[in-house]
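Example 9 (inverse folding). The structure is encoded as follows.
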């Protein structure tokens, strides 16, 4: 007879695990658990949603899964396949489709010391229930701009080929198509060739930070990069030639300087300023945005005066020690970031936070207090972006010390909304014009 106080495997998602061939199984009775900081917890039923279309399941090599045993009322580290005793097993995590924010991370135990860090993806907790996969997440934005069902491969390639023929002389356009569209299948670059929504504008090969989770630059000891960094600096004219037609014709048109495939765009502020002026001489339509670490307040103000509409400031933590441990800033600190936000707001610009969501850290009470101080500078919008990093490796690298009560990610958003009624939340850069 099933213990009355414990969740039944018929009512809660079961633990996922993989064998050495990458085949994924659901455990006959262990339940899926979640990671919050260093704590392994049993999620509530409402914390799970069906795995969104466009998501993926990742096998975590060298890492044992952790499930909840309802008979023993305790977490259990699964080390061998119950269907094939003696065979090792590996944890399975969900990489969520865009517009979805993780509530819990995938719990795991490293099978040996000195494992290399996992690749730079996010790792949400997942399980199996009623014939389908589930993940601990919620939909944080109902914008459909990066949903896979709206990307037709044949249409994308035809559009890309047409643009390449028209602008064969333009290095910037050639990079967006040959590298971003064809090599990395970047959703923003694909939207650019389709003439819709937000277009990317990478331009900076260098950076003034050495983020431990940088997507395009790493030391030998760090994780594998997600994509190679741009290797040249396009001219303002090349960028304007590409971006003006997009802003003139695209629905909900937007262009964004500062991408995961480049360094810090503020280091190319003079180039961007000239590009913005060329664009605004040709059209007032659409939103010009900058994704940035906000390290250089004077350059932020320069770009705002040139016609920059909005900035999105990346933030791993609003606490100085943890911010520095992640970003490893070169020649600036969190006070410069705060000053950049103030300058943008003083010039009536729009400011978003690109908040890296890490359950058990982002929702700590002390972090919440520091984040409220940051929001009070005039933040308009918070993008709830899943932190793409190996969870346990990250906590070790920033020397995280747990101890504060956690609010929960959903409750964090709720409390921020209550404290700042004008604050908006989402996942993507919002178009303003």
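The amino acid assigned to each position is listed next.
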């Amino acid at each position: 007879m099933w213990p009355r106080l414990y969740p039944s495997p018929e009512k809660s998602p079961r633990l996922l695990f993989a064998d050495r061939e990458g085949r994924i199984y659901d455990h006959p009775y262990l339940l899926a658990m979640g990671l919050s900081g260093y704590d392994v917890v049993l999620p509530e039923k409402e914390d799970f949603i069906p795995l969104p279309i466009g998501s993926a399941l990742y096998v975590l090599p060298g890492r044992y899964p952790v499930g909840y045993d309802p008979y023993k009322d305790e977490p259990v580290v699964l080390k061998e396949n119950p269907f094939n005793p003696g065979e090792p097993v590996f944890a399975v995590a969900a990489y969520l489709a865009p517009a979805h924010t993780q509530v819990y991370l995938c719990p795991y135990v490293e099978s040996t010391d000195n494992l290399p860090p996992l690749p730079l993806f996010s790792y949400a907790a997942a399980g199996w229930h009623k014939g389908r996969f589930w993940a601990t997440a919620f939909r944080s934005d109902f914008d459909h701009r990066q949903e896979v069902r709206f990307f037709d491969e044949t249409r994308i390639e035809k559009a890309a080929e047409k643009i390449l023929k028209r602008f064969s002389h333009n290095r910037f356009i050639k990079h967006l198509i040959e590298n971003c569209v064809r090599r990395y299948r970047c959703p923003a670059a694909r939207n650019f060739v389709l003439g819709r929504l937000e277009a990317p504008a990478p331009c900076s090969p260098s950076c003034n930070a050495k983020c431990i989770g940088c997507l395009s630059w790493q030391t030998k000891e760090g994780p594998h990069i997600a994509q190679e960094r741009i290797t040249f600096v396009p001219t303002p004219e090349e960028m304007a030639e590409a971006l003006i037609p997009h802003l003139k014709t695209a629905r909900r048109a937007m262009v964004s300087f500062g991408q995961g495939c480049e360094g810090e765009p503020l280091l190319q502020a003079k180039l961007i300023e000239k590009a913005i002026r060329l664009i605004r001489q040709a059209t007032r339509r659409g939103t010009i945005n900058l994704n940035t670490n906000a390290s250089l307040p004077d350059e932020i103000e320069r770009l705002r005066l040139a016609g920059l509409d909005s900035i999105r400031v990346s933030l791993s933590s609003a606490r100085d020690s943890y911010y520095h441990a992640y970003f490893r800033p070169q020649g600036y600190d969190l006070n410069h970031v705060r000053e950049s936000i103030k300058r943008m707001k003083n010039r009536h610009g729009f400011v978003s936070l690109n908040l890296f969501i890490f359950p058990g850290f982002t929702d700590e009470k002390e972090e919440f207090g520091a984040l409220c101080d940051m929001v009070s500078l005039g933040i308009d919008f918070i993008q709830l972006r899943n932190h793409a990093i190996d969870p346990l490796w990250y906590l070790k690298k920033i020397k995280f010390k747990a101890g504060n009560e956690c609010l929960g990610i959903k409750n964090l958003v709720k409390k921020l909304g209550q404290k700042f009624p004008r604050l908006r939340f989402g996942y993507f850069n919002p178009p303003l014009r």
